[in-house]
Design brief:
This protein is α+β, with helices and mostly antiparallel strands and 311 residues long. The chain is built from twelve helices and eight strands. 44% of the residues lie in helices and 16% in strands.
């Protein structure tokens, strides 16, 4: 009986549905699981993700800051210098026979690029000083007139043309004041520029001497460091100076005699070549220390231990 009533109800519902009129434009809603409401949101979601209408939005990383770019450049330069620079062989082998290299950084507070060598000759004590501060690598530019075009030279040729000032200080026990000989030098030898006896302050402030004053100050600081109380007092009391004129104005034979005087004491092309190697190595190490310090300061990072020690 129940089955018969069920069949009658199903037939009634089927006849009722066939007689229902649905207005145009309307549709019967299907169950939620089959509804098209959710799929119709998908195109909008894609437009939001790609910029709409198929246009892709290119998402890029924020550009690096100026500071980070500088730190990277500094680091690249440090790595390049460490990889490509090789110290001249003479740095490891040391100065020519008879000479001893002296470190004066502890004496004057900072080595300032000084290169100092010393030796004994009979009863004389000979000290030769130079510095990266009196090194001139623009010699070629100075020799070219304004209307002339400077010839192109490579880095190796530029180093060969470089000039510097050196100070030869010769002291001995029998004399209170040293003999100073100022020289212009390149890798192939020296040319005496001026000589004087004594170390009076008038000599240190002579404008004609120009940058060589730092060599006098370094020498006097070095000498007083090794002097006893009596010698230090004597240096202060006996400070005076007797100077030569410009050596270019002297008799040629006299100039030649001074040149031979220096060569006999070992101040020769072998020594000047070594001094220039030391200046080059000093400059390189100063440059590398600057790069490392600048990188450390800008990035607030501790200095890299990879920096080679100063020579």
């Amino acid at each position: 009986q129940c089955d018969g009533s069920k069949r009658e109800m199903q037939g009634f519902l089927a006849r009722a549905v066939r007689h229902v009129r649905v207005p145009a434009g309307n549709v019967l809603l299907r169950p939620l699981a089959a509804s098209t409401a959710i799929p119709r949101l998908q195109p909008f979601a894609r437009c939001f993700a790609t910029g709409g209408k198929g246009k892709k939005v290119v998402v890029t990383k924020a550009p690096p800051s100026v500071t980070s770019q500088l730190v990277k450049k500094l680091n690249d330069e440090v790595m390049y210098e460490i990889k490509n620079y090789e110290s001249p062989p003479s740095i490891e082998h040391g100065p020519p026979k008879g000479w001893e290299k002296i470190e004066i950084g502890d004496i004057i507070g900072d080595d300032e690029g000084f290169v100092v060598v010393e030796r004994k000759f009979k009863n004389e004590r000979i000290c030769v000083l130079t510095s990266t501060q009196v090194l001139d690598k623009d010699v070629m530019d100075e020799d070219v007139d304004d209307e002339e075009e400077a010839p192109e030279i490579d880095e190796e040729e530029e180093e060969q043309l470089a000039e510097a000032i050196c100070l030869v200080a010769i002291s001995k026990d029998t004399q209170t004041e040293p003999l100073f000989i100022e020289c212009h030098m390149d890798r192939f030898g020296i040319q005496v520029a001026r000589a004087h006896i004594g170390s009076g302050l008038s000599g240190l402030h002579d404008e004609m001497r120009g940058p060589s004053g730092i060599l006098y100050h370094a020498y006097m600081a070095y000498r007083q460091e090794g002097a006893g109380a009596e010698e230090t007092a004597a240096l202060a009391e006996e400070a005076s100076m007797v100077s030569s004129p410009d050596f270019q104005t002297l008799d040629d034979d006299l100039q030649e005699a001074f040149d031979e005087f220096l060569v006999e004491r070992g101040v020769d092309p072998d020594l000047t070549a070594y001094l220039f190697d030391c200046l080059e190595d000093k400059e390189q190490n100063h440059y590398l220390r600057f790069l490392t310090a600048a990188k450390s300061w800008i990035s607030d990072a501790p200095p890299s231990p990879a920096t080679p020690p100063s020579r």
